[in-house]
Amino acid sequence: MTDLLVMGASSALGFIFRFMAEGRKAKDDTMRRLVEAQQASSNSADSAAQRAGPGGLWVRRFLVVSVILAVVGFPFLASFFHVPTFVEINEASRSWLFGLIGGKDNIRYEQVDGYLLIKENRTVFLALSSFYFGQAAGR
User: Fold this and answer.
1) Please, are residues 112 and 52 in contact by the beta-carbon 8 Å criterion?
2) pLDDT tens for residues 60-119?
3) Residue range 22-45, pLDDT digits in tens
4) Residue 34: left if φ>0, alpha if ψ -120 to 50, beta else—which one?
5) How far apart are the two ends of the chain, measured CA to CA in Å?
6) Cα 72 to the center of its chain, rounded Å
7) How far apart are CA 36 and CA 30, in angstroms?
8) What residues are paired with 109 via a beta bridge?
9) Burial 8-27 (b: 16+ CB within 10 A, else e)
10) Domain ranges of the chain
11) How distant, in Å, are the alpha carbons of 14, 29, 68 from that of 25?
């Protein structure tokens, strides 16, 4: 009886250790693939930096300056010259029966005086920083 118990316990422990070894092997394989992907990305960035000439630099600068002017500069100047800014306001009416009855949208426009700062400006600046300075700066 004890021989059967010892054989069963050793088989169970052998299975557990084999399972742990396979899991560790899978983790090592995943880590190796991640390192290879990072090296490929780094090599790609290095070769892109070598190909980039002064023309690409000026194009990126032009794009960044034009987007900043369009998103921040011109609306800021427009607020000094009393150019009206209109904001869309969407009001949903009350609905019944899980939205099957009622629930109509009422859209109206309201004039805002001054500079309108919205959350999309932050998104544009994050996209610009990742475009101009690289992916690590935008995170």
Assistant:
1) no
2) 788 888 888 888 888 888 878 888 888 888 887 777 777 677 777 888 999 887 777 788
3) 999 999 999 999 999 988 888 877
4) alpha
5) 63
6) 22
7) 10
8) 88
9) eeeeeeeeeeeeeeeeeeee
10) 1-51
11) 16, 6, 49
